[in-house]
């Protein structure tokens, strides 16, 4: 398949797109500089809600970065030709989103200038410490993986390197889930189920991002994804979304039944203000039920754009879910004296409120801007467009539903 | 020599004697301080015992003393962003209405979760059990604040001025009660203990069986807050 040279109009359009991405990155960096200069006093974060909106953006990007590589893993590790064609794009998206997420989390640090300290001082008992190794390691492995896929002479190595990336990715998301899972004191976290839950969330969110990027890239090149391939991938997305639902249900049931965190569950699910709204309306209805209907209901799933809309909704639901999980988990008061009523000048025993400030939001958006710009430039300068050979796929039995 | 003269002589001698030995008594106190350059020892474990029966509701002498000693004097518009190294908590048991008031601060755990989670090792426990933050390598990630079961840590949200040179603090770093380590190293008690008008706080070496704190912990029922977490806290409470 030969690619048509870019037209002048298309070239202008590309520069506009890249310029748009760069502008978002620039205002994100300006927000970070403002926060760095003034201190976190200009954010909505405080001494009770210590992690805020930047962490919602960063964790989404990092978790989705790990999950988007799933597409490549299915190709390389499990030998599915349909996904193998998509492996380079999946690797690029992984690197781009990881860069965006890490930039946000680093720029939100109280001392972002101490990046070198973070890289040179390592505490082996810290899950964050593990991540200091896991995240840059992920960059390295995926970069080598892309090289083995895109450089013909290195092709024989793509399977073992792909396998290493697959394992590393599982470790990485286990590490991200365990950042919360190992917090013994907080009612919202301290659960072993969080590590596998984050892995399955990464599968769903990563694939949703991939579906949207793939659709845009095909549209840009005046192509459409073959219906058989689209069906195959949308079914996989549906399975992942349903699996996330299962894990979230287990997590809440464990809290209710086994860990007896009834007051916390009541807060998150019933009377916690914005949090129940985002949980039921945002994550469950918009981010889970509606996408499943769009993906599986015969009338809706055949509709043009249904998969892209479902993917967008899955991403929206992911943000709602993370907001409830991260902010809601901290807003609920810490039980320092279980069974006692507490009050103090430090807001003990009181539900905290959090209003994100503009700099936080813009910093988070800047992270998405980094991922967007890296992807836009990457797909332009290198050959990342999945090129499907349907006859070959059918022969491999990869496009039957 | 008359009786009056003898009395006068004895009184003058006693006075002179007191003046003569006073610096020595003072020096003996100073001599308990650790000489500069000598590392903290594992043979000691500094701790505190709070008698909540003596701690008065509404009294915050310990909080004020801590703020003065450690230079926590900044004005913060949103009180939720203000640093609090020690605070008074009022407790009420909803079942029987019993009330307590007590100071809450870093519990100086033997197994501190903040030290476990700190990515750079800035959160650390000294050999003598005092849990501290190394301001030079704290990156301000706030993971220790997420991990602390006592909400004992604060993040510095805004630039600081007028600091106490002995207690460095800094924008973008996490901080908490240091057990007035700068005073302890000089053989003094933490400021809060000294300021408590009711004598409700006892400071001392938990490892020394002859210390007041160790004897009281051996004789009376004391509580570790969130004992279920098995953190072996250095701060104990009596009466809750």
Structure description:
The complex is a heterodimer of chains A (401) and B (240). Chain A is an all-alpha fold and 401 residues long. Helices cover 71% and strands 1% of the residues of chain A. Chain B has 240 residues and is an alpha+beta fold. Chain B folds into two domains: 32 residues; 193 residues, Alpha-Beta Plaits (2-Layer Sandwich), CATH 3.30.70. Helices cover 28% and strands 17% of the residues of chain B. Chain B has seven helices and ten strands. A four-stranded mixed β-sheet of chain B has the order 8-1-10-9. In chain B, strands 2-3 form a two-stranded antiparallel sheet. A two-stranded antiparallel sheet of chain B has the order 4-5. The relative contact order of chain B is 0.20. Chains A and B meet through α6, α7 and β1 of A and β2, α3, α4 and β6 of B. β1 of chain A pairs antiparallel with β2 of chain B, so a sheet runs across the interface.
Alpha-carbon distance between the two ends of chain B:
64 Å
What is the CATH top level name of the largest domain in chain A?
Answer: Mainly Alpha
Distance separating the two termini of chain A:
26 Å
Radius of gyration of chain B: 21 Å
Helix content of chain B: 25-40%
Count of β-strands of chain A: 1
Strand content of chain A: under 5%
Count of DSSP-assigned helices of chain B: 7
Shape of chain A: globular
C-alpha-based Rg of chain A, rounded = 22 Å
What CATH calls the topology of the largest domain in chain A is: Formate dehydrogenase/DMSO reductase fold
Domain unit count of chain A? 2
Can you give keywords for this protein?
heterodimer, A: 401 residues, mainly alpha, Formate dehydrogenase/DMSO reductase fold, 2 domains, 16 helices, 1% strand, B: 240 residues, alpha+beta, Alpha-Beta Plaits, 4-stranded mixed β-sheet, two-stranded antiparallel sheet, 28% helix, globular
Write the layout of secondary structure elements.
The complex is a heterodimer of chains A (401) and B (240).
Chain A: H1 8-38, H2 53-68, H3 70-76, H4 81-84, H5 87-107, H6 115-120, H7 127-150, H8 158-181, H9 194-220, H10 227-258, H11 262-271, H12 274-296, H13 298-301, H14 306-331, E1 341-344, H15 358-381, H16 390-396
Chain B: H1 3-31, E1 46-51, H2 61-70, E2 86-92, E3 99-105, H3 113-117, E4 123-125, E5 131-133, H4 143-147, E6 154-155, E7 174-175, H5 181-184, H6 191-195, E8 201-205, H7 212-219, E9 222-223, E10 235-238
